[in-house]
Predict the 3D structure of the following.
Amino acid sequence: MPNARATCPSCQGEKLPSHYLCLTCWRKIPEATRKALNRRDAAAFRRLSDLREQLRRNVPLNEIQVTP
Ligand SMILES: [Zn+2]
């Protein structure tokens, strides 16, 4: 059985492989950002890139914004 562990890019804690962040970090980002990230449309990949870029620059979780 594969051991599907994944690391949260923000806190380095454990997260579910299908999630971008662990639940603790996910709850810290603005609701509008969470809603946008949950939308699956043509801009979905762009939003994920926006999120990753901001995590890399250490933008505080509560200030992260993505393409609407
Ligand atoms: Zn985390």
About this structure: Residues 8, 10-11, 13, 21-22, 24-25 surround zinc ion (CB under 6 Å). The first helix runs from residue 23 to 26. The chain has a mean pLDDT of 92.
